[in-house]
Amino acid sequence: MKRLIAKRLIHLLPVLLGMSLAAFFIIQAAPGDFFSQMALNPEISPETISLMKQEFGLDKPVAVQYLYWLKNLALGNLGISFSYHLPVTTLIRFRLLNTLSLAFFSMMLSWLIALPLGVFAGYRERSISDRLSSAFAYLSISMPSFFLALLCVYLASKTTFIPIGGTRSVFDIDAGLWSRFVDYFKHLLLPGLVLAFVNIGWLFRLMRNNFIEAYGSPYIRAAWAKGLPVPQIIFRHAFKNALNPMFTILGLEIGSLLNGAALVEIVTNWPGMGSLMLDAVLSQDLYLVMGSLIIGGVLLIAGNLIGDLLLMANDPRIRLS
User: Fold this and answer.
1) How large a percentage of the chain has pLDDT more than 90?
2) What does the DSSP 8-state code read for residue 171?
3) 121 neighbors 133 (Cβ within 8 angstroms)
4) How far apart are CA 57 and CA 209, in angstroms?
5) By Cβ atoms counted within 10 A, which residue in 74, 120, 224, 228 is the most buried?
6) H or E segment at 265?
7) Model pTM greater than 0.85?
8) Shortest CA distance to 77 belongs to which of 98, 95, 92, 60?
């Protein structure tokens, strides 16, 4: 296990290097830049724009700019955002915390619902409960996340039961720690429930199919022949072996946190990485885009590593191989 962790950490460097190299030159190849938009403002002189380009190091060749950015990255400096005039690290730290809390809440809720429901439906295959669960799963899979988010925002605006947008209420700024946590959780509910609903369907289908396949295996028939209790057969043997593919899915889901939550964050006005990356791309904020891509690459490697570690902990045969 230690060897696997060290190997993945070593692989992190070339992956991030290749990702950043491709992204940097693609952004630079796009027509115009952030300062081209500023040049359209008659109140800003060309001399001011030239000085700003020199300050950000954009007056040098593209290859030199990339090496300069790479040097700062090695020192833990992601640069200064053109739009916000703040360090990219400061901007990402706040937004990433919101995205991770949203993703953790939605993943925990969807997995806690989808896995037991998939086991129950797989155990009672072709029953009425299985058909109803499958119908709910198809509804979840076919529902676009942005459309569901729009519907939930409309309903929330009519009922005023769940707050919309932001992470806190104006009246709870000076409240205590517990009150601020409860207020933050209330704001988290709307985007979190939307993301959880659209994830439940395909997780349920995968868990159901995996359980049906594991439950029909020869070792399950051998367990029945030995006279083992039904809960032990279901949870210790069938469910545990059906979890192996799900851990791989979990790793991929962690790696795609930024992509999966982006649309829902934008529609529900949740201040996470999704809206920040959209603003950065639209304004061609070079260093902010690069910093967001680096975070995405780290999450991708971390997700695959977590999935492999959980897989190894669940199945000793994988550790031996």
Assistant:
1) 18
2) G
3) yes
4) 55
5) 120
6) helix 257-268
7) no
8) 92
